[in-house]
Specification:
- There is one protein chain.
- The protein is of the alpha+beta class.
- The chain has three domains: 31-249, Beta-galactosidase, Chain A, domain 5, CATH 2.70.98; 258-397, no CATH class; 404-529, no CATH class.
- The chain is built from 16 helices and 34 strands.
- Helix 1 (6-12) runs parallel beside helix 15 (592-607).
Length: 653
């Protein structure tokens, strides 16, 4: 890779590629930071550097028994004591590519505790290195939950657990699942115990029922005698049918992980950290007996969503050169095309749901990007889905989605939530963007031209181009605001055959500029960028509504109703920063000044890789300063879009 110009590098700063090390004041301030280790099948381990869990999702193994969903928390935590000594002092925490590590010391004892998870196997392990001046004994007590990862147990009933002891191990069964634990050293004593109630502060801040937490159950204790000097021992665990694997600590890198240097990212610490973050989201999904790919939308609670997958695909897979994986992702959703739509999401029972107008259009865009980058044709499966999408939207499909006489696409009504601004609770759609939405029609025109470019110059391609031209004319006539403030966010029917433009200032208009084959005439590009810069741009991404709007909500806080009300009405989202940067580069002709402006827009998000969920980018931020990180602590399209546009800025493309 060519080096970025010095100015861009100075704007973006540096990141700790070798690992995020917390010690001293930084460690003391890390009570709300988190770490994440992913398994590659939807499962993961997660926790806090201080070792104190503050979500129900924090645990040493959340295993996907039906990948990539059906996730069960197996091992919550392991508690440790040193005989004859008081509490040990935590002196450092490190999150590196393969695992996490804590160092404790006091009373002449130093303990290094390291945790890892398997790669595409529901396994994990914790290794201890005890350095003591005199002989001592370390006692360990594993806490087992064996529950749906979303739901804390509350007043835990010990009778739910069946335990079978074995040499150097124990097997625990509950709710149809079995976790096996093994150790390579020590004496085990069966001794069931329930802890006092453990509450979860993050759930409390979100007004969730899980805030009450749970009492943790343990089957017994393991006592390990340690001679003077250094002693090492390991506890390994797995959700059946996988078996505990002591080999997790043998390799320096996890099998299957993307080598961050494979596309020339070595030497750029920012891109390398983002590439490693990107790898956390790509997982396997079995479709018709084939092992294909999909994308976990966000950790800790999301599964795979069609919209998120298609938006994230260029950054996660095309920027990183994972063309085979990108094709497998597209084929996953192409296989589930129905009535001209790809799924919005798969639920925990693997059933597809189709309540989205934009996921299918993002599919068209992602397909063309793969063809362009790889130099290979789309293939029959992907092209069949592309044609079905266009046919479905032209003829009309579910949820009131269809094409009007002017060539523009309309969708939904006041009670639907079909665009990415889709918050709805208790029958209330908090941003009811029905009618003709600006980004939907930008995607529609772009998609028609994308498919035409993939199929050559035959009659069907000409038909798509003609339709795109007609829709583009209608788009420019209908969406451009006469006051110079960019574009209307949507056109709503007035009930008498006319369409009324909504003057809400939202980031959706950016896609009319950023999409390579979009509909907007070039003379209107600058006004879109100017209004979004003035009203929506923050150091953490784009606000979803102008602060000057009476409906603006500046804090993503409170219970579910309050947060859903703010979700797309002022809350900042990182992922649209990609469209903003693309638009800045297009308006500025990819000049050095435009690249510098784009780099500055990314600076806050790049800096945040060192806080929150270490090495990740959150789903959302508050609209008003100080803009706390909120929502999922690691979000696929946040990482993907920052990675994609940072690579563009660095390469001056």
């Amino acid at each position: 890779m060519g080096n970025a110009q010095e100015g861009v590098g100075e704007v973006l700063g540096a990141l700790p590629v070798g690992g995020f090390v917390l010690e001293g004041d930084r460690l003391r301030a890390a009570a709300q930071d988190e770490w994440l280790l992913t398994i590659g099948n939807g499962g993961f381990a997660m926790g806090c550097p201080t070792g104190v869990p503050h979500r129900q999702y924090h645990g040493l193994l959340n295993a996907a028994w039906r990948p990539p969903t059906g996730r069960v928390q197996c091992v919550h935590s392991i508690e440790e004591w040193v005989q004859g000594a008081g509490p040990l002092r935590l002196v450092s925490f490190t999150k590196h590519r393969c695992g996490v590590e804590w160092v404790y010391e006091e009373w002449g004892v130093r303990i290094t505790k390291s945790a890892r998870v398997g790669w595409r196997s529901n396994t994990g392990a914790v290794r201890y290195r005890v350095e003591a001046q005199a002989a001592t004994t370390v006692e360990l007590r594993p806490n087992i939950t064996l529950r749906d990862m979303h739901h804390a147990l509350g007043e835990t009933d010990p009778s739910r657990y069946d335990t079978a002891n074995a040499d150097n191990g124990v097997r625990v069964r509950a709710q149809g699942h079995t976790v096996a634990l093994r150790w390579d050293r020590g004496i085990y004593t069966p001794a069931e115990r329930l802890t006092e109630h453990r509450s979860y502060p993050t759930a409390l801040a979100r007004s969730e029922e899980e805030a009450y937490g749970e009492r943790l159950w343990s089957p017994g204790t393991l006592a390990v005698g340690c001679d003077p000097g250094a002693t090492e021992f390991t506890i390994a665990y797995a959700l059946a049918p996988d078996e505990p694997d002591f080999g997790l600590f043998d390799a320096s890198e996890r099998e299957g992980h993307l080598d961050a240097t494979s596309r020339g990212f070595e030497g750029d610490d920012r891109l390398e950290v983002l590439v490693r973050a990107a790898d956390d989201f790509l997982v396997e999904r079995t479709v018709g007996g084939r092992s294909l790919k999909t994308v976990i939308a966000g950790y800790p609670w999301f599964g795979d969503w069609g919209r998120d997958t298609m938006i994230a695909l260029p950054g996660l897979m095309i920027t990183t050169g994972r063309y085979v994986d990108a094709r497998a992702c597209l084929e996953t959703f192409a296989a589930h095309e129905s009535e001209g739509m790809i799924p919005n999401l798969f639920d925990d029972d693997d059933q597809p749901h189709y309540n989205t107008v934009d996921a299918s259009l993002w599919f068209l865009n992602a397909s063309r990007q793969l063809v362009e980058a790889s130099g290979e044709p789309a293939g029959e499966t992907i092209l069949r889905a592309c044609h079905a999408i266009i046919d479905g939207y032209r003829a009309g499909t579910r949820f009131g989605i269809g094409m009007d006489a002017d060539g523009l696409v309309f969708a939904g009504d006041q009670d639907t939530q079909l665009t990415w601004m889709d918050a709805k609770r208790e029958g209330i759609a908090f941003s009811p963007r029905f009618g003709k939405c600006v980004e939907i029609n930008a995607l529609w025109v772009n998609g028609l031209r994308c498919v035409a470019s993939m199929i050559g110059d035959d009659a069907r391609a000409a038909e798509y181009r003609e339709l795109a031209g007609r829709a583009s004319q209608a788009f420019n006539a209908a969406f451009v605001r006469p006051d110079g403030l960019g574009l209307y966010d949507r056109l709503e029917p007035d009930g008498h055959g006319a369409w009324i433009g909504s003057e809400e200032i939202r980031p959706n208009q950016l896609f009319a500029v950023s999409l390579a084959l979009g509909p907007l005439d070039e003379r209107h590009w600058a006004s879109v960028v100017d209004v979004c810069r003035e009203h929506l741009l923050t150091p953490s991404g784009m606000r979803t509504l102008s602060p000057e709007d009476p409906g603006y909500i500046g804090r993503f806080k409170g219970d579910m109703m309050q947060r859903d009300g703010a979700y797309h009405n002022g809350t900042v989202w990182p992922w649209p920063i990609g469209a903003y940067c693309d638009a800045v580069l297009r308006v500025g002709g990819h000049s050095e000044a435009a690249r510098d402006e784009a780099a500055r827009a990314l600076r806050g998000l790049v800096d945040d890789l060192s806080s929150g969920c270490l090495g990740q980018i959150a789903e959302v931020y508050d609209g008003d300063p100080p803009r706390d990180q909120e929502g999922c602590c690691g979000q696929a399209w946040s990482v993907a879009e920052v990675l994609r546009v940072l690579d563009r800025v660095s390469r001056a493309v």
